[in-house]
Amino acid sequence: MKSTYVYLAIVGSACVGMTIAGLLPEERVVAQDEVAKAEVTKDWPQWGGDSKRNNTPTATNIPTSWEIGDFDRTTGEWQKEDAENIKWVAALGSQSYGNPVVADGKIFVGTNNGSGYIERYPSKVDLGCLVCFDEATGEFLWQHSSEKLPTGRVHDWPLQGVCCAPYVEGKKLWFVTSRGEVRCLDTEGFRDGENDGPYKDEEFTGEKEADVIWVLDMMKDLGVSQHNMCSCSVTCRGDILFVNTSNGVDESHIVIPSTEAPSFIAMDKNTGEVYWTDKSPHTNILHGQWSSPTVAELGGVPQVIFAGGDGWVYSFKADKGTDGKPELLWKFDGNPKNSKWVLGGRGTRNNIIATPVVYDEKVYVAVGQDPEHGEGEGHLWCLDPTKRGDVSSELAMKIEGSQRVPIEHRRIQAVIEEDGEVAVPNPNSAVIWHYSTYDQDGDGKIEFEETMHRSIGTCTIKDDILYIADFSGLLHCLNAQTGKPNWTYDMFAAAWGSALIVDDHVYIGDEDGDVAVFKLSADPDDAEPLEEINMGNSVYSTPIVANGVLYIANKTHLFAITEGGE
């Protein structure tokens, strides 16, 4: 039956429509999915392309080699004559961590104010910026500028800028500012000569300024206290916008100043009205909360999946909730119960910065910590999202005589064995597989390359082949159905971003500024890159493809890459 659907995906569109119409309803859904996969991806309107967050666009003739060219040391101007397969280059700030998004003929990137595009904000003024460029030419169009919070680095780390990606739909976009605000903008800015929001001050309505439609200040209105920065790439289902608030610890890294503030919220994307809030991580937040939500219909139920700063994954019904509260479907502890949180990354317990990914009705997520905490023990999980309740792999119990009494989750360590506490298998576990270490060469020893380390990147999966990079510089290639490793490759530099799979190739950037290009393959013979191209500066973001163009942002510039640079 599967081969029939593949055939349907490649025949003419009229014939496909007639054939699909004759199928049973459940067959029609599968067939339509196959057709959609065969269509060339146009816009890439949010982090991961859609709310399932799997970075696998469809395109052909995407370059696997290029040269970025040189930049004039005095003016900073790009010297195109020395480049190969580069369509255009746009200057970003001095530090760029936001992933590019492409929609409405424009490209939107989070960065800082290093380029000083706005006259009233010269480059010496530190801002969080969302910058908009023309998709065809790379011309700067407009910028949203967020002045730094007066509280300083505890809430708004210097020079970090906007570290998330927006969600774009039609002529509107939604994003989280570095000041802890959710904002809705007009994608045209003020270039269309119209003011779409209530903000009338002429200082903010120049042609190169952002046109703000509405604002929710999560610090002021919800009591949130983000740690270091607020960073969430929002997503949407219908008219409901989902946001991780980034609520975290204070400068002591011990006290959570806003334990009653929400970690997760659902909003009306049209008005900014808050439908529901949830504070599940509560007093167990370890550090910050910088993950992004994922939305999919799983087991016939629309689910929004949040990764919490306590190291747990939470799934709620993706609707408006009831009386300001969501319906919790399941929750999962991403850490072994005996793992311990130690300040500065010296422990074995992790929070989750990566975005959960949905593939083949399964949820994939890795644990990790702030990159400043360095390398450490990691875990990658594949979960069944049709389970309900506590679906962790283990349960924490206290032994009292002949009885085992459940222990409520604790922030520092869930199970302290010397106190008579134990971790027992959970009969309701949602774990399909777990990857931490695997003796690939069968020598009875676990080597560096046979270990999953902390990761802040997401999984990328196609044809049951899963790729994920960790912060120790390893790119892991696994079987997405079983979790068995196919191979690992040492990039010799930390990876902050995630892999791109397109045109049967895999692209991944690293902190040294190298982008490695692999053949999409589970064969260990393909574990060496076809090309390794240096981008001239660290690549903290994830490569994307939209409308047949490959986009890669390094620390200071955005590159549009095409065959022949056309």
Describe this structure in words.
This protein is mostly beta strands and 566 residues long. It folds into 2 domains: 1-39, no CATH class; 44-56 and 94-393 and 429-529, YVTN repeat-like/Quinoprotein amine dehydrogenase (Methylamine Dehydrogenase, Chain H). Helices cover 7% and strands 33% of the residues. The chain contains 4 helices and 38 strands. A 5-stranded mixed β-sheet has the order 16-17-18-19-23, with no helix packed on it. Strands 3-38-37-36 form a 4-stranded antiparallel β-sheet, with no helix packed on it. α1 packs across α3 (25-38). The protein is globular, with a radius of gyration of 23 Å. It starts with a helix and ends in a 5-residue tail after the last strand. It holds the Pfam family PQQ_2. This is Outer membrane biogenesis protein BamB. Residues 54-64 have a biased composition (Polar residues). Residues 352-519 form the Pyrrolo-quinoline quinone repeat domain.
Defining key terms:
single chain; 566 residues; Methylamine Dehydrogenase, Chain H; five-stranded mixed beta sheet; 4 helices; globular; disordered N terminus; transmembrane helix; Quinoprotein_ADH-like_sf
